[in-house]
Amino acid sequence: MPFKPVQAAIAILVGLIIWFVIPVPTGVTPEAWHMLALFIATIVAIIGKALPIGAIAIIAVTLVALTGVTSDSPKQAISDALSSYSSPLIWLIGIAVMISRGLIKTGLGRRIAYYFISIFGKKTIGVAYSLAAAELMVAPITPSNTARGGGIIHPIMKSIAQSFHSTPEEGTQNKIGRYLAMVNYHANPITSGMFITATAPNPLVVELVNKATGGDIQLSWTTWAVAMFIPGMLCLIVMPLVIYLIYPPDVKATPDAKKFAKDNLTEMGQISTHEKIMLGVFGLMLVLWANIPALILGEQYSVDATTTAFIGLTTLILTGVLTWDDILKEKSAWDTIVWFGALIMMAAYLNKLGLISWFAGNIESLIGTTGVGWIGAVTILTLVYLYIHYFFASTTAHITALFAAFYAVGLTLGAPPMLYALILAAAGNIMMTLTHYATGTAPVIFNSGYVTLKEWWSIGAIMSVVNLVIWIGAGLIWWKVLGYY
């Protein structure tokens, strides 16, 4: 991504105006206000894509250290600026991205998708459910939702569409390609919300919830997966049907799809040793993330989620499934570690310096005058939090900028901490449905040309409502059963 001087200039200008022009509000310290200036400038730069997000993060870390907004001591300032890079959650997501490289390198991801299509691909809707099932299968160990939906599933979806001569170039995308492209995309936000390790911003939510509640609410991998599984599965079941009703494919029966999948499986040959190892590592990590050893043998046999990720990566290295060169070349993993650490650090210090509590207090007073109570407040906050994503081109930027403040307001107004955390966590993934720039997967699939802009935005708005109603509706029942409120 080249340097964009106009976008960079806008980000710098915004930061300077907040720092030097806008007076520091009553109740806010200068240090907190200056950190806000750096933070908003960073978010504006990310939204405008002035530089790659990792480069922007490095600049942000440098500015935090240089300006001394966290400490007058230069040594302490740089320690503060680098403080989040020791967070296990950052390394969990980075290592998981490295591990997901094995799905692509070994071909296991493609084999899983072809396998489902070979069984359920007799009808177009069966192909759709096969793509969604493949998404779900690989989601727990692919924290790059772009790599999953755009890098693993999308090429298979295109190949199937092309085998039916359904392409934008031929003007025949409505035969089957448009429908499958929509399902390909809308499965992505749903599976992203079902596991902490299914998309990079989820661990950020975990960290922000933990800090906001003083450690009282700690969303483990198992807690998240159990809480989100039922609502997520219901959304995944309903989604292909809704799209089928609104944008039905011209071709309803696809017997050739089963043959296509079987031919590709034959071409791939017998499952390789490296695929078997990859599958074994996948299973082992799920067992450890689900805390099964501790449930059977006792809590002393519990394994930390980040340690589990390191075990998985170590196994892949020792068995030769991944080489160190493979890991070094996994730029998205190292990039994630860099920008993730910077954003967590800035968000943490906005909280430590008191800005989040000040902001939350003001919003609380504003909503409090309506007399809607915490249920009404949570409803308003959730809807605003979700649909303001029309103005964001990054879920990471959105969550970093707004989650802590919205969560703090809800807690202050009396929302149950665990319940509200799960609601906002779900909304943070549902919002990916909205636009063709909502998350990294969106432009990959949109640019393939199967779906027009009008169709994309229309189905995005519809699916956001459908997913929100199902996820929160089923969630309220399921989470009550789990005792979360």
Please explain how this structure is put together.
By secondary structure, the chain is mostly helical. The protein folds into two domains: about 1-80 and about 335-350, no CATH class; about 90-330, no CATH class. The protein has 23 helices and no strands. The chain has helices at about 5-20, 30-50, 55-65, 75-80, 90-105, 110-120, 125-140, 145-165, 175-190, 200-210, 220-245, 255-270, 275-290, 290-295, 305-320, 325-330, 330-350, 355-370, 375-385, 395-410, 415-430, 440-445, 455-480. Helix 5 (about 90-105) packs antiparallel against helix 10, helix 7 packs parallel to helix 9 and helix 10 packs parallel to helix 20. The protein is globular, with a radius of gyration of 23 Å. The model has no long low-confidence stretch (mean pLDDT about 90). It is a multi-pass membrane protein. One of its GO terms (cellular component) is membrane. It comes from Psychrobacter fozii. This is DASS family divalent anion:Na+ symporter. One of its GO terms (molecular function) is transmembrane transporter activity.
